[in-house]
Design a protein that fits this description.
Blueprint (H helix, E strand, L loop, with lengths): L5 H18 L42 H14 L7 E6 L2 H15 L4 E5 L4 H10 L2 E5 L9 H10 L5 E6 L11 H10 L5 E6 L24 E5 L1 H5 L5 E6 H4 L4 E3 L4 E3 L9 H12 L1 H24 L13 E5 L3 H6 L3 E3 L2 E5 L6 H12 L2 H4 L1
Parallel strand pairs: 2-3, 2-4, 4-5, 5-6
Antiparallel strand pairs: 1-7, 6-7, 8-9, 10-12, 11-12
Length: 376
């Protein structure tokens, strides 16, 4: 086997140094920065693959982490108040795949259904709708990002004789607004829509939303049919991943047996990452619900501090209640790129997550104060 040249080794070192520097200036995108999974490096020597249903015990392919994946699903099903003995799920390649799976499941349950989602929904929703060839209605949003319930009702009335497939945002992409599935269900009842499916896209907030006061209405006990939570956003993973939880009795209506695997084909992809379930399992075992709650409180305090510091510069910054996202007028390209800030229209935002420190915020505030283009 050919050895790496000195140039190859230098390139690896340069990439590591680049990523380390950029990690210290990553404020605008929802990924956690402080984690250590070095104990799991030993598993990179095995060709593991989680193909098939993690709950199907008799498959012929054994180089997997299905037993670990099941524990991850049990943890999140309990966190999200899924009904005992009536839930199923798997670890996805990200929340976009989880949204695709939920829409696929809803389509199979309700052919001819109409998808309703707000204009603040993640871009994966519209893309997945296109992939699946679904009919849809895009609903207006309120100024703070939550779905406009009046417009939702008007859109429902246009198709009240068809099944409704609703995407509820539990933390919108840019403003971290949270839709409330209680008034959504009230509207469905008022419009006499009997067949409906509610999917909650809780990619960023789903892992901690149960600890907020007041708690958002989005879990299974409150009427959700499926929920997606990201693994790499608030929880922390070096590899993108997500956790999709659905009602088992719905999933069983679309399951197919695959002879070559001697397993059920219940997931979007065939081959699946077997390392990410191990990473999330490790996080659960080492951090747990108490640790997640503690990290949330630290982030909420830092988010409040950040908004105040920006406001003290005479710049109007705001955040939704209990949100970790701070929104302010759009900054210059130079500042946007230095701190990797997300921007949309006339606004920029930054997001507080585990690993963001007060020193990082103070350094950003200094740059913001000196941002000449921002003042123009």
């Amino acid at each position: 086997m050919k050895n790496l040249t000195p140039e190859d080794k230098n390139r690896i070192d340069e990439l590591k140094n680049h990523l380390q520097e950029r990690k210290n200036h990553l404020l605008g995108y929802p990924v956690t920065l402080n984690f250590d999974y070095s104990l799991l490096y030993k598993f990179l020597q095995y060709p593991v693959n989680n193909a098939g249903d993690p709950f199907y015990m008799d498959g012929s392919h054994h180089m997997n982490t299905h037993s670990i994946e099941r524990e991850v699903i049990h943890f999140f099903a309990n966190l999200l108040k899924a009904p005992e003995n009536n839930y199923w799920g798997y670890v996805t390649n990200g929340s976009s795949e989880g949204n695709l799976y939920a829409l696929y499941l809803a389509k199979r349950l309700y052919p001819g259904g109409v998808v309703y989602f707000s204009e603040e929904s993640h871009y994966s929703i519209e893309k997945n709708i296109d992939i699946l060839g679904l009919n849809y209605q895009k609903v207006k949003s309120q100024p703070h990002g939550e779905i406009d319930y009046k417009d939702f009702e008007e859109k429902i009335l246009l198709h009240q004789d068809q099944p409704a497939i609703i995407i509820a945002n539990i933390g919108t992409t840019f403003k971290e607004a949270k839709d409330d599935i209680k008034p959504i269900q009230d509207i469905l009842g008022k419009c006499k829509v009997k067949k409906y499916y509610i999917h909650c896209d809780a990619a960023f907030c789903g892992s901690y939303a149960q600890f907020l006061t007041p708690k958002p209405h989005f879990d299974f006990s409150e009427g959700a049919d499926s929920i997606i939570v990201s693994g790499h956003k608030f929880l922390g993973s070096p590899i993108p991943c997500g956790i999709i939880i659905v009602l088992k009795h719905n999933k069983e209506r679309i399951s197919n047996y695959v002879d070559v695997l001697d397993s059920l084909d219940d997931t979007i992809t065939g081959s699946r990452n077997a390392i990410t379930p191990l990473i999330i399992w490790y996080m659960i075992r080492t951090v747990g619900t108490e640790g997640i709650h503690h990290q949330l409180n630290e982030c909420l305090n830092l988010a409040a501090y950040t908004r105040i510091k920006i406001n003290h510069l005479g710049i109007k910054a705001w955040r939704n209640p209990n949100a970790l996202t701070i929104i302010f007028p759009r900054v210059s390209k130079a500042l946007q790129y230095k701190w990797q800030l997300a921007a949309h229209g006339a606004f920029s935002h930054l997001i507080i997550r585990p690993g963001i420190t007060k020193d990082m915020i103070d350094s950003f505030i200094t740059d913001l104060k000196n941002d000449v283009n921002y003042r123009k």
